[in-house]
Amino acid sequence: MNKVAVIGLGYWGPNLVRNFHQVAGPRLAVICDRDPRRLEAIGRLYPWLERVQNPQEVFQRRDIQAVVLATPVSTHFPLAKAALEHGKCVLVEKPLTASLEQAEHLVDLAQRQGLVLMVDHVYVFHPAVEKIRQLVQGGQLGQVRFIDSVRINLGLVQSDVNVLWDLAPHDLSIVDYVLGRFPISVAAYGKAHVLPEVEDVAYLTLDYGQGLVANFHLNWLSPVKIRYTIFGGTQQSIVYNDLDPVEKVKVYSRGLSVHAQDVEGRRRLLVDYRTGDVWAPHLDKVEPLRRVVEHFLHCIDHQEVPLTDGMAALRVVKILQAAQESLKQDGQRIFLEPVQARCEQLRSPLARKEPVCPNDPKSLSAFRG
Ligand SMILES: NC(=O)c1ccc[n+]([C@@H]2O[C@H](COP(=O)([O-])OP(=O)(O)OC[C@H]3O[C@@H](n4cnc5c(N)ncnc54)[C@H](O)[C@@H]3O)[C@@H](O)[C@H]2O)c1
Q1: Distance between CA atoms of 152 and 155, rounded to whole angstroms?
Q2: Whether residue 223 has a cis bond before it, omega within 30° of 0
Q3: Is the CB of 242 under 6 A from ligand 1?
Q4: Residue 263: its pLDDT value, please?
Q5: Is 210 helix (H, G, I), strand (E, B) or coil?
Q6: Please, which of 15, 34, 160, 281 could form a disulfide with 74 given CB 3.0 to 4.6 Å?
Q7: pLDDT, average across residues 58-62
Q8: Which of 6, 11, 296 to mutate to test the pocket of ligand 1 (most atoms within 8 A of CB)?
Q9: Chain mean pLDDT for the chain
């Protein structure tokens, strides 16, 4: 009755299978992939799990309470919709869907049914991102002026989504969580080199108003892998290097401020450079995907709204869709309406807790259930 099935056993699905096995033990009962070779390969590692090729078989089973979707983006909507219609809670890989309309439909459906719908915005559960959020929300950066991010490597070129829809959900979910703000406009510029119409290099710019601008470089063709995000503030700045094994987050008391114009009022400015300390906060060593899995199960068992719920997923999809529109118009700036989905007016029977801090030891019990 409370069993879990993982659908999609390609590149990412096996990581979910491993974590569900570690966290939930026998509650993980079924693995599913339409490709019998993937079923065989992963089934050999977990011989006690049932193997199913057709997701409909999973949806129809009464002992399955929750399904996890790690299939290509274009399949997220039909599979998640079918799962929710059959009364299953759903954890979907990022991005939730390939369009805003689809995302709204799923959020509505989950809320009407009182079912948990969560998206795997895995970085929201990363100790580094949680620390950055604490610093930003605690005002330690002063006013955030810019965010500059580089997420590039030789990527797995996909045929159903471009590099924006593949990589930007990571950055957009991080920024959504850290800032707790929605941008007022978006512009994106990119080019397709490998597959026609599938951009593999893209530059995305978000304007949050009040002087805060964010820029993201996304690239599947880079010979080197870089995962770098800078949060620049008026008092301090953060450099987050996800590939640094020891000091992923560094806080710099370094910057400049203009204190006066010269006496003749010419354009020459008198600038102060601050070169203060650099420090690296302690971060817990924990696999973020394990926390995703723990949180999903906790929300099902306690009837709670997840931290990365349908609305968080919808905010990301809304920006992606506008970015796609901009991409097709050679970087035209697109203004965004604030997110007010119809579903916000619906009353979900699930309890909404204050966002618990996934990496705070005090709230770990909430995650473990
Ligand atoms: N959170 C992360 O860091 C992260 C990392 C990589 C990928 N992803 C996401 O995971 C999802 C899958 O990506 P991937 O790289 O593993 O793709 P993949 O192509 O390697 O694997 C997808 C698998 O799904 C199976 N499949 C496709 N349609 C199916 C269907 N209708 N029924 C059953 N099985 C079906 C395929 O046979 C394949 O084995 C995507 O949404 C992607 O964005 C997330």
Answers
A1: 8
A2: no
A3: no
A4: 61
A5: coil
A6: 160
A7: 97
A8: 11
A9: 91
Confidence of residue 260 (pLDDT cuts 50, 70, 90): low
> Edge-to-edge strands of the sheet including 64-69?
50-52, 28-32, 3-7, 64-69, 89-93, 117-120
Quick check: CB of 158 below 6 Å from ligand 1? Answer: no
- Summarize pLDDT for 82-122 with one digit per residue, the tens: 999 999 999 999 999 999 999 999 999 999 999 999 999 99
Residues contacting 100, CB < 8 A, separation 6+: 314, 317, 318, 321
Give yes or no for a contact between 115 and 84, defined as CB atoms under 8 angstroms apart.
Answer: yes
What's the pLDDT at 267? 61
The continuous run of DSSP H or E covering 69 comes out as strand 64-69
Q: How far is the CA of 12 from the centre of ligand 1 (A)?
A: 6
| Distance between Cα 363 and ligand 1 center (Å) | 31
Residue 160: CB within 6 Å of ligand 1? Answer: no
Distance 94 CA to ligand 1 centre (A): 10
Q: What is the CA radius of gyration of the chain?
A: 22
pLDDT one-digit tens code per residue, 165-198: 999 999 999 999 999 999 999 999 999 999 999 9
Residue 135: strand, helix, or coil: helix
pLDDT of residue 276: 86
Tell which atom from ligand 1 comes closest to the C-alpha of 78. 31
Residue 130: CB partners within 8 Å, gap ≥ 6? 357, 358, 359, 360
pTM: 0.92
Task: Specify the residue with its C-alpha closest to ligand 1, atom 19.
Answer: 10
- Which CA distances in Å does 99 have to 46, 198, 233, 307? 35, 16, 33, 21
Give 322 or 269, the one with higher predicted confidence: 322
Q: Which residue has the tokens 């850290």?
A: 178
Q: How far apart are CA 351 and CA 151, in angstroms?
A: 35
